[in-house]
Specification:
By secondary structure, the protein is an alpha/beta fold. It has one domain: Rossmann fold (3-Layer(aba) Sandwich). It has 6 helices and 14 strands. It has helices spanning 13-23, 29-47, 85-94, 141-152, 167-176, 204-209; strands at residues 2-3, 7-9, 53-59, 64-70, 75-81, 99-100, 102-107, 114-120, 129-133, 136-137, 157-165, 181-187, 190-191, 197-198. Strands 1, 2, 5, 6, 7, 8, 9, 10, 11 and 12 form a 10-stranded mixed β-sheet that branches. The chain has a two-stranded antiparallel ribbon with strand order 3-4. Helix 1 packs antiparallel against helix 2 and helix 2 crosses helix 3. The longest helix is centred in the N-terminal third of the chain and has 19 residues, at 29-47. The protein is globular, with a radius of gyration of 17 Å. The chain starts with a strand and ends with a helix. Bound molecules: 1-O-pyrophosphono-5-O-phosphono-alpha-D-ribofuranose, uracil and magnesium ion (MG). Magnesium ion binds next to helix 6.
Length: 212
Amino acid sequence: MADMDHVIIMDHPLIKHKISMLRDIHTGTNEFRTLVGEIAMLEAFEALRDLPMENREVETPLEKAMVPYISGKKMAIVPILRAGLGMVDGVLTLVPTAKVGHIGLYRDPKTHEPHEYYCKLPAPIEQRTILVVDPMLATGGSGVEAVDFIKQHGGKKIKFMCILAAPEGIKRLHEAHPDVQIYVGCVDRELNEDAYICPGLGDAGDRIFGTK
Ligand SMILES: O=P(O)(O)OC[C@H]1O[C@H](OP(=O)(O)OP(=O)(O)O)[C@H](O)[C@@H]1O
Ligand SMILES: O=c1cc[nH]c(=O)[nH]1
Ligand SMILES: [Mg+2]
């Protein structure tokens, strides 16, 4: 795991292997969706390392004891629609009591700038650890817009988790929101002229939902 000032790049063979399978043009929709969920769960295992805990009493077969539990009710998962939806269930597998917000953004195919079309966040957002999820951090425009929006609505403790990132996207998000920890499955080489990540995996939303 390399940690460069709030940017955490996953370095685990299971994540690397599954990302390689995602890249394969022959991986079909069903397998692609399953892999995105599995990778999200593995990344969340690391990204949620500092999740708030609370002590509660438990009765073991031997005695009563105060033991730590996750304060899951203080967490929010916020997927950036559409592709981020593919990561939600993987995180919910680990923290089933988390609430889920949604931010709808699409990239303009010409300008590559994000356009918002939906937003709903769980209250009280200011008290929650917020995990923004989107498989792709390309130019960083969508990530920055999503975090801007969450902060405008009072969100404070925000993490961003993606599967693939371009160096440009990491830089833009980190410069705009240096307080946000960015968890990345793999950093790819560059963006092409259409702002797609190379070598990448194509259009994550289309591959998750079979809309190509
Ligand atoms: O970093 P950026 O340059 O903003 O690009 C990344 C965004 O592009 C994709 O969404 P897209 O606009 O394709 O919408 P979709 O998820 O509905 O397919 C992806 O899921 C990110 O949200
Ligand atoms: O490579 C990319 C870039 C943005 N969005 C995607 O789905 N793929
Ligand atoms: Mg898309």
